[in-house]
Amino acid sequence: MAEKELSLQTFYKRLELTNSPGIKIIKPKFGKHIPDNELKSILQKIKPIRENSLIIVNDHDRSTPTAKIVNLLRSAGILIKPSNFIIATGTHKFPNNIDLVRFTGAKIDDQVLIHDCDDEEELIYLGETKNGTEIVVNSVLMEYDDIITINSVEPHYFAGFTGGIKSLIPGLASRKTIEKNHSLAIKPESCILKTDSNPLHEDLWEGGKLLKSLQKIKSIQIVNHNEQIFYMSVGTLQKAFNQCKNQSFKIYGTPLNKKFDHIISFVANPLNKTLYQAQKAMENTKNILKDNGTFTLIARCDRGIGNPLFFQRMKNLQTPENIVSSLTFEKYKFGDHKAYYWAELAKRARLFYIGDISSSEASDAFMEKISFNQLFTKIEKWIKKNQAILIDEMGGMSVAYLEK
User: Fold this and answer.
1) For the domain 36-251, what is the CATH superfamily, name and number?
2) Which end of the chain is least crowded, N or C, by CB within 10 Å?
3) Distance of CA 293 to the CA centre of its chain
């Protein structure tokens, strides 16, 4: 950032926020992490993985401690023979400077593949969902009898939760499949913490069921923060996901009995690397922000905008009103859901930004770039006016929702 990083501790001390009755601070309720010996005991519920099995792992934009889990599988005697790994990138581009063996926990005899959603020679058509999503996936899924997925389960602003089927779709799907599925994100029922009657979530699972081996796929689903694991479930893909989803809801969700005038979100790593990912912090708490309030996004964004499609869409349409009125499910283009959600919030709230994105780029995203000192001044005024302020210590992970 242009100015020195400010820790949360320094932030609180300077403003004496803990003494203000109008301040609410949220973060995930991780509790005590599971020690490695207990994790190995849980993993031993899985039968030993046969040679030349396929292990599907998350990409660099997820906090899943893949290598740790793979090493635990080895020390538990579950993974002792050479296997094949594939990194489920979806539409993301995997960086060239990451050591694939170290990242996945693979051994020298293992093969590590990287999914490419645009490589038509490696893709295969499975069928179509009732929503018209043509399910085209990496053909590697058809080549193995033993498949295991490793995934982390966190709230997701339109799929309900990450994890589960997302290792396959969008993780190993074609760009066209992902684009069609993501068009459902514009529907209001596609929202955070919700899987039942969530059209996008249901479309993913319907697509996954076209894969004949789905019921045979074994899965490791976790709730984690960096290397620390707080919950782990193993079993079939659906069962392991459902168990982990319920625990994820308890850990990440914070029920509140009122809305707030202002939200300040310190975006958590690795979501703070790009503006594309950092937006998740806005989505996770926007439902408890009052109309005409403010949202301050604090995210370094040292890798810039990220996927530029949503950003270009906003620049072209120029105003939040134009975006909301122009973008529809029927005319969806990839990235529209991101621009739509962003504009929807910008229509009813003032957006501030602190980080490495330039002032002009922030402006194109309907945000005003400010400094920490300017934020301090604003907070002091808000406190004097007895306005309610929510501080999210782990933006993009914490979720706030109104109690019913």
Assistant:
1) LarA, N-terminal domain (3.40.50.11440)
2) C
3) 25
In this prediction the pTM is 0.86
Q: What is the DSSP string of 210-263?
A: TSTTGGG-EEEEEEEETTEEEEEEEEEHHHHHHHHHHHHHHHHEEEESS-EEEE
φ and ψ at 30, to 5 degrees? -70, -40
Tokens of 353: 């930004």
Cα 377 → chain centroid:
32
Closest CA to 87 of 76, 77, 99: 99
3-state secondary structure 257-269: CCCEEEEEEEECC
CATH code assigned to 8-27+257-402: 3.90.226.30
Q: 269 burial class (0-12, 13-18, 19+ CB within 10 angstroms)?
A: middle
CA geometry: angle 152, 158, 164, nearest 5 deg: 30
* CA 85/CA 57 separation, integer angstroms: 7
Domain with CATH 3.40.50.11440 in the chain: 36-251
pLDDT in tens, 22-46: 889 999 999 999 999 999 999 999 9
For the stretch 315-340, pLDDT in tens is 777 888 888 777 665 566 666 777 88
> b/e for 65-94, b at 16 or more Cβ within 10 A?
bbbbbbebbeebebbeeebbbbbbbbbbee
